[in-house]
Specification:
The complex is a heterotrimer of chains A (348), B (270) and C (275). Chain B has 270 residues and is mainly alpha-helical. Helices cover 70% and strands 1% of the residues of chain B. Chain C has one domain. Chains B and C meet through helix 2, strand 1 and helix 8 of B and helix 2 and helix 8 of C.
Chain lengths: 348, 270, 275
């Protein structure tokens, strides 16, 4: 099977302004400016197959949206080769746009003051969707999420969840082969999140649409994506199955401990101090193992260890020698934790 | 198979759809519509009062009399209507670029400028149009201009051509936001202010400004040159006859610049 | 304007807001340069327009105004417009429509003075970027027709009062947007009324008797007419200056009072209806 998106050695550079500080700096900026070359995307190579659902992850400013903009033909790469549906997107922006859909979690692309169904009708004309396809899709949407209840409401009167739902439906209306989604579940409550995830999952399966999903929400990734691509500072640092990632970190465990029965009553600073102490003890005891990381989360001191390097019991004993542990928990590593680990440490 | 090229009929059809829908939804903001229309009428009445006060103190300006200048004023108000009704979204361009909302216009298989501009249709300008018509009719009458085919046809061709200049100027001004970071609505405000001088016969300015108002910021075409054909046929210049062609060329150029800016903008956003 | 318990502390707060707004205004380089350029072009247009108008007149002085007087008056009015046009109405309308306004109520800083100081930065920049250069150019172009004496001191005080009056009117009009849902329309009405009746478009001296009488009992003259009159009228004596400033002070007090009352009443409505 031929890849639907092919990117080879893609680079993208931007010129950015360096601002000076203070009022004096602001005045100097009026007259002379310093620019800096920023490599937003650095040698990225990805192949995406038809029907895949890919989680595209990375911290803010990592180059995610720049990559998406290149795939949609909005940006031209500084160098490298890119093909979407067999076409070079920036040379055929409008032609490429006919075959893709885009969803932004934060901004609606529908006409603000119009009832949704009117937005859909305009989109029908813009994309020249046949009457038959249009009707089929509306019926399908109705069966999927009971969408017709929303059709006569203007977007500006909708809740964020309803708006997101409609935006997603609108993006699939012209049966695009690829849909790009940028944080579709941002700002939604738990039940709406799972509703949106279910919708996206079904659209992917039943329509066979390729979906590229950028998100910060690990719940989205866990629920939807088999494959994940991680980018940091413009470089691709991971591209593989999500299972592979989990197995790679299979030996990692998180130990949660509390020294006091009522840790939730303690000051944050006291807990922070305890965490630092724990870290110091472990550092001196297990000087050779670099995987140990101590952090604080909701009154718990969290210790991340790699069992191939140190044994859990040794760690617990080491701490116990210094101070009585009041409560303890043991956790498998979560995807979120794994990805944070990758962002922070660059383990690949 | 889907068509690659999209013609005039395609765009006209979509524009009509958006426009009708938009009108419908405007009705739900009736208070805003009425207040805004009155607001524009305020501006026009104030402009009228200013003229009146001016001519109370000074009976003529370099041979131009009250009713002639009033004619120019009404003419320029009518010529302002299309830019206000159909191209008002240019005022939102800077904000759209600043917040990144402009991106959403880039993902449709449709002309970018068309898609952006079609989003807003503003009927507030209609009140101004009516005021302009009243002013023109009133001064036409007072000046005793013949109601001949030549004059009426010349007048309408003149108004339509004149309206092209304001469209072009505002397109140019708006597209500056693509290149300059932030705060460039200043340029649009500036241009919008300059248009207020279109109501004076540019002949009264000195040579340098006559050239500027003809070729650099062509507000001379927004009332003065085309009006000559009706109110002072003996003073008509070649520029009067050139107005429609020059207008078309400028609108097209402003469209090219706008589109170039849009492409260039996407290249610097992070 | 501050009525906090510790004037020192709240003054510091507002100073921080002011500093931030100056830096923000400066960061828009293009805008700053455009303002300078635009102001210069405007100055030239006014010059040639009124030159032509006065050239066509059989007399040199019309209603006590010579060409130079008119020129100084109108050009400086345009430069002052940059202080006065601070988008306060838009800001309030926007804060209302987005529901932000309720957030401001929870802050330890009052909305009205907060808004005033966050807009004042723009005034400070405008003073240096447009007003000063314009003033100097006009001074030289009119060959020293502006008297440089005690009137300058009164002029500065008068401008500060004018900014205050203008802000209070803007603030008042901004709150009207709570009730009309139309920011743009309300704002344009205000702009037209203010610029005509304050003498910003045509000096009040040219107004016919009847108009003049109406304008004299309205607050708008305190914004452009009085400061510019103080600057240009060479016949004014100390008592005249005092009367003029007194009128401004009176309008400042009245408008401040009215706008605060209106604000208090409207906020009550806000908290009852939940925005």
């Amino acid at each position: 099977m031929e890849a639907i998106i092919k990117m080879a050695d893609i680079n993208k550079e931007f010129k950015v302004l360096k601002r000076r500080e203070g009022i004096r700096g602001s005045i100097r900026d009026l007259f002379s400016r310093d620019y800096q070359i920023l490599k937003a995307v650095n040698d990225v190579t990805i192949d995406i197959m038809p029907g895949e659902m890919v989680g595209y992850l990375g911290p803010n400013g990592a180059g995610k949206s720049t990559t998406i903009k290149m795939m949609t033909g909005v940006l031209e790469p500084t160098s490298g080769e890119i093909l979407v549906n067999g076409r070079v997107p920036y040379e055929n922006r409008t032609r490429n746009a006919q075959d893709i859909g885009v969803v932004f979690g934060q901004r609606s692309q529908l006409w603000w003051a119009l009832p949704v169904i009117e937005s859909f009708r305009i989109l029908k004309e813009i994309y020249q969707i046949s009457d038959r396809d249009f009707k089929d899709n509306l019926e399908y949407y109705d069966a999927l999420v009971g969408a017709s209840e929303l059709y006569h409401k203007p977007v500006r009167q909708m809740s964020l969840g309803q708006r997101t739902l409609c935006d997603i439906l609108a993006a699939f209306l012209h049966n695009p082969s690829i849909v790009f989604m940028d944080e579709p579940t941002i700002g939604l409550d738990v039940s709406m999140k799972s509703k949106i995830r279910e919708l996206v999952g079904r659209l992917n399966k039943e329509k066979g649409t390729t979906i590229i999903l950028t998100t910060h929400d690990m719940g989205d990734v866990d629920a939807l994506c088999k494959r994940i691509v991680i980018i940091d500072k413009g470089r691709m640092i991971y591209d593989n199955d999500i299972e592979h990632l989990r197995s790679y970190f299979g030996a990692y465990r998180t130990i949660q401990i509390q020294f006091d029965r009522h840790a939730e009553d303690l000051d944050n600073e006291v807990l922070q101090q305890q965490a630092l102490e724990v870290e110091a003890w472990l550092r001196s005891e297990f000087a050779g193992s670099e995987s140990i990381a101590v952090s604080m989360e909701e009154n718990w001191i969290q210790i991340l260890i790699n069992e191939e390097e140190v044994h859990m019991m040794d760690v617990v004993n080491c701490i116990q020698k210094q101070r009585q542990i009041a409560d303890m928990n043991l956790q498998e590593i979560s995807t979120e934790r794994v990805i944070r680990k990758i962002y922070e440490g660059g383990i690949v | 198979m889907k068509k690659e090229k999209r013609g005039f009929a395609y765009y006209a059809h979509i524009y009509k759809m958006i426009l009708l829908q938009d009108l419908k939804s405007k009705m739900s903001y009736r208070a805003d519509f009425i207040i805004s229309t009155i607001g524009i009428l305020f501006t026009d009445v104030a402009g009228f009062i200013s003229f009146w006060i001016l001519f109370q103190n000074f009976p003529e300006i370099k041979g131009w009399h009250y009713y002639e200048v009033l004619f120019l004023y009404g003419f320029s108000l009518m010529a302002m209507t299309p830019v206000q009704c159909f191209f008002d979204n240019n005022w939102n361009l800077m904000e759209a670029l600043y917040t990144g909302n402009f991106m959403k216009y880039c993902f449709r298989p449709i002309n970018l400028f068309f898609y952006f501009i079609s989003e807003v249709f503003d009927i507030k300008g209609v009140g101004q149009f009516i005021f302009g018509v009243i002013t023109v009719v009133y001064s036409w009458n007072k000046l005793g201009i013949l109601l001949s085919f030549r004059n009426i046809a010349g007048f309408f061709v003149g108004v339509i051509s004149a309206s092209l200049f304001m469209i072009a100027i505002m397109n140019f001004a708006a597209s500056a936001s693509f290149w300059m970071s932030g705060g460039t609505s200043q340029l649009m405000i500036l241009m919008f202010k300059f248009k207020d001088y279109a109501r004076y016969p540019i002949k009264i300015f000195n040579r340098a400004f006559q050239i500027i108002f003809t070729f650099v910021i062509p507000i001379g075409f927004m009332a003065y040159y085309p009006s000559l054909y009706v109110i002072r046929p003996e003073e008509v210049t070649v520029l009067t006859y050139l107005t429609p062609f020059y207008g078309i060329v400028l609108v097209y150029l402003s469209y090219l610049v706008w589109m170039k800016g849009a492409r260039q903008y996407s290249g610097t956003d992070s | 304007m501050s009525n906090g318990n510790k004037p020192g502390a709240s003054l510091k707060r507002y100073a921080a807001v002011l500093r931030g707004s100056i830096m923000e205004a400066l960061s828009f380089r293009a805008s700053t340069f455009l303002r300078i350029a635009g102001n210069l072009i405007y100055l030239l247009i006014i010059y040639f327009l009124w030159r032509a108008i006065f050239d066509s007149s059989p007399v040199d002085t019309v209603n006590g105004m010579s060409f130079y007087d008119t020129m100084i008056y109108l050009v400086l009015a345009a430069a002052m417009f940059n202080f006065m046009d601070t988008f306060v109405v838009y800001r309030i309308g926007d804060d209302y429509q987005t529901g932000q306004i309720v957030l401001y109520l929870t802050r330890p800083i009052e909305y009205q003075p907060f808004l005033f100081f966050s807009r004042l930065g723009n005034c400070v920049i405008s003073f240096f970027v447009t007003f000063m250069p314009t003033f100097l150019i006009v001074y030289f172009v009119t060959k020293g027709s502006i008297a440089l004496g005690i009137n300058l001191l009164f002029f500065v005080v008068s401008i500060l009062l004018a900014i205050g009056v203008n802000f209070c009117i803007d603030f008042f009009v901004g709150i009207i947007c709570f009730y009309t849902q139309s920011v743009w329309g309300v704002n344009i009405m205000k702009e037209v009324v203010v610029s005509l009746l304050s003498g910003a478009t045509i000096p009040l001296a040219f107004f016919p008797e009847v108009f003049r009488k109406i304008v004299d009992v309205l607050p708008f003259q305190a914004i452009y007419h009085i400061p510019l009159h103080i600057l240009t009228d060479k016949t004014m004596q100390l008592p005249d200056y005092m009367t003029s400033l007194g009128i401004q002070l009176f309008w400042l007090a009245v408008m401040l009072g009215i706008s605060r009352l209106f604000w208090k009443g409207s906020v009550k409505g806000l908290t009852v209806n939940g925005g």
